[in-house]
Amino acid sequence: MNILLVAATQAEIEPLLLHYGFNKLPDRQKRIGTHTLSVLISGIGMVATAFAIGSYCIEKTFDLAINAGIAGSFDPELKPGDLCRVSEDSLAEFGVEDGNNFMNAETIGLGKSLFSAGSVIGFPYYDQLKKVKAVTVNTVHGNEKSIAEFVERFHPQIETMEGAAFFYACEQVGIPGIQIRSISNVVERRNRENWQLELAIKNLNDTLIQLLNS
Q1: What domains can you pick out in the chain, each with its CATH number?
Q2: Cα–Cα distances in Å, from 13 out to 18, 102, 124, 161, 212?
Q3: Which of 6, 76, 116, 167 is deepest in the core (most CB within 10 A)?
Q4: What residues have CB less than 8 Å from 198, skipping those under 6 apart?
Q5: pLDDT of 164-210, one tens digit each?
Q6: Which of residues 95 and 8 earns the better pLDDT score?
Q7: 174-203-34 Cα angle (round to 5)
Q8: Whole-angstrom distance, CA of residue 49 vs CA of residue 146
Q9: Cβ neighbours of residue 153 under 8 Å, at least 6 residues apart?
Q10: Is the distance from CB of 182 to CB of 86 less than 8 angstroms?
Q11: Which of 79, 206, 93 is nearest to 154 (CA)?
Q12: Three-class SS string for the chain?
């Protein structure tokens, strides 16, 4: 299988790069078992992610794309270090306000804002990951009032800054896409002391390596 691994930052997949020796390869492509893995560091956010994938895939084809990274959790059952797979994602802020009401882009015909993961065969550990509903945002939440309003409106379990844009770009270039996230923090008023980045990154990369080796 020809696989594209997309991460917003190199730090999020650094252990995997070191494990497989990618940092010694200028084109970041390597054969792993029966798979050929290419690595793309897209940059943070929706715009950077969509542009990076679109540009990278102009003359390249893949059987599967994987978006891997950290995420914030709205779900009290998802703790820092937990792994999950995103079954559905949305461009949560893409739409219009009408007084106290919010209408998403699809409702009023502005464009697609809801996305689902592609189907994948051959990764038995992937199906064992907790399935979650995600939202993709430009502004990471850190205000109690806005968090409460956002949860009431969208009922998300996690938030990222790239996921739905990744799914959108994969649809546009015709690649099945899946998204694997490791929880780094609870969505709350910004408190870096409560974040567990090292644990989240370690568990994410352990899982990715296990998937690829399977």
Answers
A1: 2-213 (3.40.50.1580)
A2: 9, 36, 21, 16, 13
A3: 167
A4: none
A5: 999 999 999 999 999 999 999 888 777 777 778 999 999 999 999 99
A6: 8
A7: 45
A8: 25
A9: 102
A10: no
A11: 93
A12: CEEEEEECCHHHHHHHHHHHCHHHCCCCEEEECCEEEEEEECCCCHHHHHHHHHHHCCCCCCCEEEEEEEEEECCCCCCCCCEEEEEEEEECCCEEEECCEEEECCCCCCCCCEEECCCCCCCCCCCCCEEEEEEECCCCCCCHHHHHHHHHHHCCCEEECCHHHHHHHHHHHCCCEEEEEEEEEECCCCCHHHCCHHHHHHHHHHHHHHHHHC
Residue 112 and residue 104 in contact, taking contact as beta carbons nearer than 8 Å: no
The answer to whether 157 and 136 have CB atoms below 8 angstroms apart is: no
User: How many Å separate Cα 14 from the centre of its chain?
Assistant: 16
Tell me the mean pLDDT in the region 33-58: 94
Residues paired with 134 in a beta bridge: 158
d(CA 55, CA 40): 11
CA distance 29 to 6: 12
The structure tokens listed for 169 are 């770009």
What token pair was written down for 154? 């969208």
Can you tell me the distance from the alpha carbon of 143 to that of 92, in angstroms, rounded to the nearest whole number? 17
Over range 89-110, report the average pLDDT.
Answer: 72
Place of tokens 């492509």: 29
